[in-house]
Amino acid sequence: MKKSKDIGRERTADIAFEYQKKCGQRQQEYLKRLKELQKKKNAAPDGNPEAAKTNNSLT
Fold it and tell me: Which of residues 43 and 28 earns the better pLDDT score?
């Protein structure tokens, strides 16, 4: 039979694991959104990626 200390430790470990998992998910969502914003920022109005490079170098 498990002691109450052991049960408490398991619960604490489960809570910590879930917290880390959620943090990782939030970080992945943030990075995905950041990449989308970078693509929009670097996109040229006419869809020409070379024009986007020259436009960004001027600003």
Answer: 28
> How many angstroms separate the Cα of 55 from the Cα of each of 37, 39, 40?
17, 14, 13
Residue 11 lies inside a defined structural domain of this protein: no
Domain total in the chain: 1
pLDDT digit string (tens) for 10-38? 999 999 999 999 999 999 999 999 999 98
Q: Classify residue 14: in a domain, yes or no.
A: no
Q: Where are the beta strands (DSSP E) in the chain?
A: none
| Separation CA 47–CA 49 (nearest Å) | 6
